[in-house]
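Narrative of accomplishments. A recurring question from our advisory board has been how the design workflow behaves on a single, concrete structure rather than in aggregate. To address it, we present the structure tokens for one chain from the evaluation set, followed by the sequence designed for it. No filtering or post-editing was applied between the two.
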């Protein structure tokens, strides 16, 4: 596999959970839990990208690497690209992973799974999804669905045709819950951040549609679990219960 750089974008401003990256989970900031799980994947160099000196200090105190980025980025992808340009100016890393900083219960194997589609020549971007098993999620607009078609010769991957908050596709068959972890070929990330927000992206409020509308191919690895994203105080309490006081996810 090509050399990989994992970037975790993080900022303190969060409407529903202010100061989210520094939220305490058994004595450790959430962003440090995410960094540790990314390191445990052993998939490449891991860097936290942030505009906060407090986040930088927390990551470095834990032994991690953090880089300062501008405060005016409109998206995590823009922050990731700036970080990549700063920490790897010679372009040694060919694959860039954008790993959300609010996934403290992430199973490290999901990082590796996200990289798998890029072993093939076709896709420019790879991401993850899991089959929806909770009927309520099928009609929940907060659960993003990926509509895809089979990748020839590969049993556990799809080529994305569309991402939507609606219940899709229609008819009998599985629906897939998109998981917002992305692996980019470096050239694809550079191309992506150069594009203006697209019509469907604005309508669905889904950044990945910008890539599809531009003709970029996104392949999706199907996994068996959806990591808990922490967006609210209730989510934070769930994360604390899952992780446990020893810092490890409970079975």
């Amino acid at each position: 596999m090509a050399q990989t750089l994992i970037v975790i974008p993080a900022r303190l401003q969060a409407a529903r959970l202010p100061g989210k990256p520094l939220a305490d989970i058994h004595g450790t900031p959430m962003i440090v839990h995410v960094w540790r799980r990314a390191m445990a994947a052993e998939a490449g160099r891991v860097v936290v990208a942030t505009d906060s000196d407090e986040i930088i200090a927390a990551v470095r105190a834990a032994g991690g690497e953090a880089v300062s980025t501008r405060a005016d980025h409109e998206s995590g992808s823009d922050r990731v690209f700036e970080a990549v340009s700063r920490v790897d100016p010679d372009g040694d890393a060919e694959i860039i992973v954008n790993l959300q900083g609010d996934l403290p219960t992430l199973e490290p194997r999901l990082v590796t799974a996200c990289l798998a589609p890029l072993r093939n020549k076709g896709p420019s971007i790879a991401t993850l999804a899991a089959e929806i098993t909770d009927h309520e999620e099928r009609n929940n607009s907060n659960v993003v669905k990926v509509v895809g078609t089979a990748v020839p010769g590969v049993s556990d991957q799809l080529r994305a045709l569309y991402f939507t908050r609606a219940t899709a596709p229609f008819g009998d068959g599985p629906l897939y819950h998109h998981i917002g972890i992305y692996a980019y070929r470096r050239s694809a990330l550079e191309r992506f951040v150069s594009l203006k927000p697209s019509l469907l992206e604005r309508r669905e409020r889904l950044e990945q549609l910008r890539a599809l509308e531009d003709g970029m191919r996104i392949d999706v690895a199907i996994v068996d679990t959806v990591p808990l994203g922490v967006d609210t105080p209730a989510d934070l309490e769930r994360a604390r219960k899952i992780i446990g006081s020893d810092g490890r996810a409970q079975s």
